[in-house]
Amino acid sequence: MTYSQICYDVIRAVATITLNRPERLNAWTPTMAAEFRQAMEQANNDPQVRAIIVTGAGKGFCSGVDMNALDGMTSSGKTPSKSFTPLDPAAREDFQHPMTWLPSVGKPIIAAVNGAAAGLGLALLLFCDLRFASSNAAFVTSFSRRGLIAEHGTSWMLTRLVGHSRALDLMFSSRRVDGDEAYRIGLADRVCAPERLLDEAREYAENLAANVSPRSTRIMKRQLWDALFVDLATSMQEADEEMRESLKSADFKEGVAHFLEKRTAKFVGG
Fold first, then answer.
1. Running DSSP on this structure, what letter comes out for residue 145?
2. How far apart are CA 189 and CA 182, in angstroms?
3. What CA–CA distance (Å, rounded) separates 99 from 154?
4. For 142-181, how does the pLDDT look when each residue is reduced to its tens digit (9 = 90+)?
């Protein structure tokens, strides 16, 4: 499959999707959006892929929507119309919209934030499952400095990661947050030296690919994202149902067998 604004590769069961407009700090365009979605579908549908890394080429992760695209928006406040087909029609309606569809991907997604992540670029990484940040990364909401508002579920997800008042601070001020602060406030799960960022993200993803059940990660991912919307009793009921199914699965049998036989696991995802 040929892409013009992203790069896609698979090494040792890990797919890496690289936003690839480095001369524009990987500013988001309609073409990039379509290719990113297509690459995610490719990774999601490939049984050989067990985990996904998202990063940016050059010095930026994603600097937000390309300003040329912003120029095309009308003064009436309407953005160009676009259709959207959910990646997983069985996913919650909450996860069937631009950016918020990432939790419906059935594999772990790790954002390797190598540089500037602003505006829509920030929204993108918020809906990944984990965020590894370079120490020289820069997280910026940007919206207040463009006369805009928190888009694509950013207000909902940012609050859950960093807390209400910190989210308001980041939204109101549009100030720059570096990798170290992002880690301290919960916006990043790990901070890495710039030269080690991709290596550490790959090591983590390859460990998932080699040593854990893809069936388990798929179901646990859905459980944890769905748990943001349900009460404890509902979560417990769903967990009991999923546990009964897990005990009948091939991956459970393999999980017990490889432990008892003291060998490397050979999970099949079923």
1. G
2. 8
3. 9
4. 887 778 777 888 999 999 999 999 999 999 999 999 999 9
